Every structure is written in structure tokens, then in C-alpha cells.
């Protein structure tokens, strides 16, 4: 290491990148990584946390990303220099000026008047929140004529929320779907939910929920529907047999609670509340857990649309100031909105389907860092942290999806007609923003440098999603080439910047999954991790086709870790089996080497279909058992929809579609 000299010419006493121990003892440190010479000599544990210091130089990857971005911009400047862009700018300016003048006129046409201005009303482009007769706030955009009815009950429901809840309760009793849960079992499931699920996908605000559930009993923040949905999803993290419809099948955990929640939701969706949105969001995760992808996707869209209906995507400060809603209600509403946003983006990248939520529609405030959830400690039986930093993690996750949402939509849009140069510019620009995002993460959201010390479990999730974003950004641009040893094959182009970025992120995903398993076990990991492992495995499989022995060996070693992680996750999340089957099929189609086939669990001595146990089917291509059909279904379509209180259940055909997924056979299904 080069000696460092101050402005006076005297050598510095300490390195600006000294390890923690040398910095504390104020002794000279040579800054060697991973262990400095002083710590080696003294036999001390050496750690660096200098990433929080402004004195640390930017990383090599960040500098390279900036250089690539500069080259891209210079190329564009040369290409478009002298282009006549002023005409469009002038016309845009004139149009903007015209709009501004129109707004000014509409705002001032009746000065100092207590009467509303018709001109101002019809030129308003912000829309309006209205309070209906049911007491709920509803949103109408400015294109709707109902937005002109300020503070009027234009959005009232034909049936009150209380009536719908009573109808749901009668139906549960009539059909024998009501589930009674003991206080001990409820508390067990709630503890799992707060520790492992809600810290990552922050859907339920803990304190208002518990206060309402245990003390107030107002059902404003804790309703039977929301409690059923929480317990149904939390059941996936538990090994207790009484939660399973079939004690031998972990995939049936929480089935009864989920069916109860779905029946209540059928009624409450006619007049949704904030708790209805929360429950629907949790049910979407629960249905994906049982590999009911279409139903989970449907629930995700329902949650987002109900949130739009209640105007949760808007800044509600004015409604707090005027006393229409409390600050706590506004805070819970904002939290629920952003949880719908995160879910929407997770489904967007996980299933490759369009987002329901667009950035230009949002004005809601981010969850406040002053919230108690930020400072609440997190602990399990082996580890404890003085602060959970849940809100910091939520805000960083939102920022990550805001950075990548539009670029990935543009890159993967089927109708995209972007020129190659434009696409390259979009990739380099987004990559620089991602590198900046990672560099600027606060210390509480960074991975702990030492593998011996754990990081918060939800922080691991943030970094998994970061590396998935890197892979998805670069994956479409990985080049292929032939090779002399395999003239008929195609292999990833060695040295490609896009391949390097994908490979490094795939390796990091493998490392994070290994650390999570070491410190927490993968029995307690959220379902979104499956897509991360799946995404990394695709890149690792690709590298396993490389003619370079070193790259191939490294990829296969990491592939082993990722596949083992998917197997571990399959106990809680049946969707993991689907990912495993896809990986194995790709391995065969890509003709990877025998060691790679073994890494993904393919064995030529796999049992045949005749070897399957009763009720179990085997995939003939992969040789692994598929989930049994028993216990996977929702409602039995033969259930008679008898009248309740003199009234028959409406939408008889529709309820079968919404709450029951069609049975399937073989290796795939349509829902």
C-alpha cells in the first residue's frame, strides 16, 4: 500500500480506510483486506465498516459503470449534434404556457368569492376524494364527472360494510367454513408473521392491529377477514400439524383459514375498506404459495384496484388537516398503498406481466422513518438486533423498484421499437443509478462484511431483489458465439460486460441464500426469494455451458447452492417445485454437462411413473415427484349455494371462478 502524505508533507498516522480495531485503538493500519497486518500480528478479529465514510473512494464497478455511461452519452452527442430539436422544444413551451395561462385564468376568474367557480371545477386535473354515505373515502379522477361533486356522497355503496360482514358470518356458519383458533395458536402464528413475513412485505401496521385485536375491538384495523388472511399466510411458516388439512402434506397448511378468508372477501369486496385491501394482498401471496399463480395474480390486481378506489395512492394531508381522517388512519393507508406497490412490482418481474400501478399516478407520502416499526427491535432464538429498520428497508425497496420499473418495462415491452443505441443508453443509465443506489445505502441496510455475523433477514431480501434487477437489466443483451470445441453449439460470449454483471449478481444471490440458510434456515424465508433463486439459476445454467473450465466449475458450485435452497423452500412454498421443474427442463434442453445435470437434481436412474405412490405423480422428464392433487383445491364446486336469511348468494358462477382453481394433471396447468 502506498504511503499517504498530508498537505504539510508529513506521513499520515492512520489510513483513511483503517479497520475498526485500529481505528478504535488509534494505531497505524495498512488497510489490507480482508485482514490487516496489525490484526494478523495480534491475532485479532478484523472488520471494515468504512463504507459509511465519505472518504471511501467509489468502487471499481461503480467507476466502470460511470465510464460506460459517459461513452454512451458521448456517442449520442456525436450522432445527434446539430439535430434540429429546438422546434419541438418551442412548441412544447408554447403548449405549456397556454396550459399555465388557462389554469391561472380558472383560478382567478372569481376573486375573493365564496362560491365555487365552474371554470375552475371543469379544468381541474387532479380529481377528488369524496366521502360516501358508508363513511369511506373514495377517489374519482378528473376525467370522471363524479369528481365535480366535492364532498358529496357520490361514492356510496348500496350495502353497508356492517351488513356485508353479517352476511359473510351467516354464510360461514351455514356452509361450515368457520374456523376457530385458540389464543395460543393465534399468538404463535402472529409471532411468525411479524418476524418473517411482515418485516419484508410490510402490509400490516403492527401496533394499531394489535391494539384493535386485543384491546379496542373496533374492527377498524383488525377485522375477521384480515386476521384470517394473516393466520392463513403465517401457517406456511409453521410446522404444527393442526394447521394442515392433511397432517402429512405441508402444502395444506392454512387451507381452512384461507377458505374462510376468501368467503368473507367475497362479501367485503363489494364495499372494501383498508383492511380488505390488506387481506387481499396477503391472500395473493398465500395463493402463489400453493402454486395457484393465476389466482394470486388476480388477488394482487384486486388489492391495487381497491387501493385506487379508496384513494390511497394520493397525498391525504389535506384530509387529515380538515379532520376527515386521523393521522393514524392516513399513515396506515399510506403503508398499505406502498405494500400494494411493492407487490405489484414483484409480480411484474416474477411473472413478466404489466404493472397495474404507474408512477405518474402516485402522490402518497412514503412511510415515515419516525414510525415505531423503524425502531422496534428484531430477534429470534439465536439472534437479536436493537432496531429492525423495517421502514428504512421498505423505503429502499420502493426506491429500487422506482429506479428499475420503467426501464425494465421498456426493455421487455413486446412492442418496443427502440433503436439499439437508445436501448444501450437506457441500460447504462439504469445501471449507473443502481450502482449509486447501492453505494448510498445506509449502514443499517448493508450486508455485514463478515459471514460469521448475520444481517437482518429483510435486508437480505432487499439485496436479493437488487441483484435480480441487475440480472434482468443485462440478461437480454448477453451475446452468444460458436466455439471450436463445439461447432454446432452456442455459448455465452466470454468477457461480455452484460454477462459479467449477470454472473456476479447470480453469484451474490447464491451467497446471500447460503448466508440466510446459515443464520436463519430457509424454512423461514419469504416466497419472493424463489424468483430470485430461479433467476440466478438461469444465469448459472448458462455459464455451465461455457467452454471455460473455471467459469463452468464456479457456476456449477453456485448452482448446487441455489437448487438446494429451492428444495428447502419447497416445504413452505409449493411454487418452488415449479421453479425446480423449469430449471431441470432447461438443463436438458440446453444440453449442459453431467455435473450440471446432477447439480439440478437430474438423475438418469430416476423412478418411473409406475413407481409413484398412490395419489402422487412423477414428471417423466425430470424424475421428481409433483404435488398431489388432493388438498390443493379451493371450494368444492359441488357445494350447494343455499339461501341465507331468505337471500340466495349472487354470482354463483363467478364465485366458483374466483375461489376455486381448476384441477390439472401432468406437469403444467391453466387457471
UniProtKB/TrEMBL annotation:
Signal peptide: none annotated. GO terms for cellular component: nucleus. One of its GO terms (biological process) is DNA-templated transcription. Residues 18-48 form the Zn(2)-C6 fungal-type domain. One of its GO terms (molecular function) is DNA binding. Residues 87-97 have a biased composition (Basic and acidic residues). Keywords: DNA-binding, Metal-binding, Nucleus, Transcription, Transcription regulation, Zinc. Transmembrane segments: none annotated. It is found in: Nucleus. Its main location: nucleus. Pfam families: Fungal_trans, Zn_clus. Residues 98-107 have a biased composition (Acidic residues). InterPro entries: Transcr_Regulatory_Elem, XnlR_reg_dom, Zn2-C6_fun-type_DNA-bd_sf, Zn2Cys6_DnaBD. Residues 81-122 are annotated as: Disordered. This is Zn(2)-C6 fungal-type domain-containing protein. It comes from Fusarium coffeatum.
Amino acid at each position: 500500500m502506498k504511503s499517504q502524505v498530508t498537505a504539510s508533507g508529513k506521513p499520515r498516522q492512520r489510513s483513511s480506510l483503517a479497520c475498526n480495531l485500529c481505528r478504535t485503538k488509534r494505531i497505524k493500519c495498512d488497510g489490507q483486506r480482508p485482514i490487516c497486518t496489525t490484526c494478523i500480528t495480534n491475532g485479532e478479529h478484523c472488520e471494515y465498516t468504512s463504507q459509511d465514510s465519505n472518504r471511501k473512494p467509489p468502487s471499481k464497478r461503480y467507476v466502470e459503470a460511470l465510464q460506460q455511461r459517459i461513452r454512451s452519452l458521448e456517442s449520442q452527442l456525436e450522432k445527434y449534434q446539430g439535430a434540429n430539436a429546438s422546434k419541438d422544444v418551442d412548441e412544447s413551451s408554447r403548449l405549456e404556457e397556454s396550459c399555465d395561462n388557462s389554469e391561472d385564468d380558472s383560478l382567478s376568474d372569481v376573486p375573493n368569492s365564496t362560491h365555487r367557480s365552474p371554470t375552475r371545477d371543469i379544468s381541474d386535473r387532479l380529481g377528488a376524494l369524496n366521502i360516501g354515505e358508508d363513511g369511506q373515502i373514495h377517489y374519482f379522477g378528473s376525467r370522471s364527472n363524479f369528481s365535480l361533486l366535492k364532498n358529496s356522497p357520490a361514492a356510496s355503496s348500496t350495502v353497508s360494510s356492517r351488513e356485508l360482514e353479517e352476511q359473510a358470518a351467516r354464510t360461514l356458519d351455514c356452509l361450515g367454513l368457520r374456523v376457530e383458533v385458540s389464543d395460543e395458536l393465534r399468538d404463535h402464528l402472529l409471532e411468525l408473521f411479524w418476524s418473517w413475513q411482515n418485516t419484508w412485505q410490510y402490509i400490516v401496521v403492527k401496533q394499531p392491529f394489535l391494539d384493535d385485536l386485543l384491546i379496542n375491538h373496533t374492527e377498524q384495523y383488525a377485522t375477521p377477514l384480515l386476521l384470517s388472511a394473516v393466520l392463513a399466510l403465517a401457517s406456511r411458516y409453521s410446522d404444527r400439524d393442526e394447521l394442515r388439512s392433511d397432517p402429512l402434506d405441508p402444502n395444506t397448511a392454512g387451507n381452512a383459514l384461507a377458505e374462510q378468508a376468501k368467503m368473507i372477501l367475497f362479501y367485503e369486496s363489494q364495499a372494501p375498506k383498508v383492511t380488505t385491501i390488506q387481506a387481499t394482498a396477503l391472500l395473493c401471496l398465500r395463493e402463489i404459495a400453493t402454486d395457484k399463480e393465476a389466482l394470486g395474480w388476480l388477488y394482487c390486481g384486486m388489492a391495487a384496484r381497491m387501493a385506487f378506489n379508496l384513494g390511497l395512492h394520493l397525498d391525504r394531508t389535506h384530509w387529515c388537516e380538515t379532520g376527515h381522517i386521523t393521522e393514524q388512519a392516513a399513515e396506515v393507508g399510506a403503508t398499505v398503498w406502498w405494500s400494494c406497490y411493492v407487490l405489484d412490482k414483484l409480480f411484474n418481474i416474477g411473472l413478466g406481466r404489466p404493472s397495474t400501478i404507474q408512477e405518474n399516478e402516485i402522490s402518497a407520502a412514503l412511510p415515515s422513518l419516525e414510525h415505531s416499526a423503524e425502531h422496534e427491535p428484531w430477534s429470534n432464538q439465536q439472534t437479536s438486533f436493537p432496531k429492525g429498520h423495517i421502514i428504512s428497508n421498505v423505503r429502499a425497496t420502493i426506491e429500487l423498484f422506482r429506479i428499475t420499473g420503467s426501464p425494465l418495462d421498456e426493455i421487455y415491452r413486446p412492442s418496443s421499437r427502440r433503436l439499439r443505441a437508445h436501448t444501450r443508453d437506457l441500460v447504462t443509465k439504469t445501471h449507473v443509478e443502481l450502482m449509486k443506489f447501492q453505494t448510498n445505502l445506509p449502514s443499517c441496510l448493508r450486508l455485514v462484511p463478515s459471514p460469521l455475523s448475520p444481517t437482518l433477514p429483510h435486508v437480505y431480501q432487499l439485496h436479493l431483489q437488487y441483484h435480480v434487477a441487475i440480472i434482468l437489466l443485462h440478461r437480454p443483451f448477453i451475446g452468444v458465439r460458436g466455439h471450436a470445441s463445439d461447432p454446432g453449439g452456442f455459448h455465452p460470449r466470454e468477457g461480455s460486460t452484460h454477462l459479467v454483471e449477470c454472473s456476479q449478481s447470480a453469484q451474490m444471490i447464491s451467497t446471500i441464500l447460503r448466508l440466510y440458510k446459515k443464520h436463519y434456515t430457509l424454512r423461514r424465508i419469504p416466497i419472493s426469494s424463489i424468483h430470485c433463486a430461479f433467476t440466478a439459476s438461469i444465469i448459472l445454467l448458462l455459464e455451465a455451458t461455457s467452454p471455460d473450465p473455471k467459469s463452468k466449475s464456479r457456476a456449477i458450485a453456485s448452482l448446487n447452492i441455489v437448487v438446494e435452497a429451492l428444495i428447502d423452500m419447497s416445504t413452505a412454498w409449493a411454487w418452488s417445485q415449479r421453479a425446480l421443474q423449469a430449471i431441470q427442463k432447461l438443463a436438458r434442453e440446453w444440453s449442459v454437462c453431467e455435473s450440471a445435470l446432477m447439480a439440478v437434481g437430474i438423475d438418469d436412474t430416476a423412478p418411473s411413473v409406475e413407481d409413484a405412490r398412490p395419489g402422487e405423480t412423477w414428471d417423466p422428464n425430470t424424475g421428481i415427484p409433483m404435488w398431489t392433487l388432493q388438498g390443493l383445491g379451493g371450494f368444492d364446486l359441488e357445494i350447494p349455494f343455499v339461501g341465507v336469511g331468505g337471500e340466495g348468494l349472487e354470482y354463483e358462477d363467478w364465485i366458483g371462478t374466483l375461489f376455486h382453481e381448476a384441477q390439472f394433471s401432468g406437469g403444467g396447468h391453466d387457471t
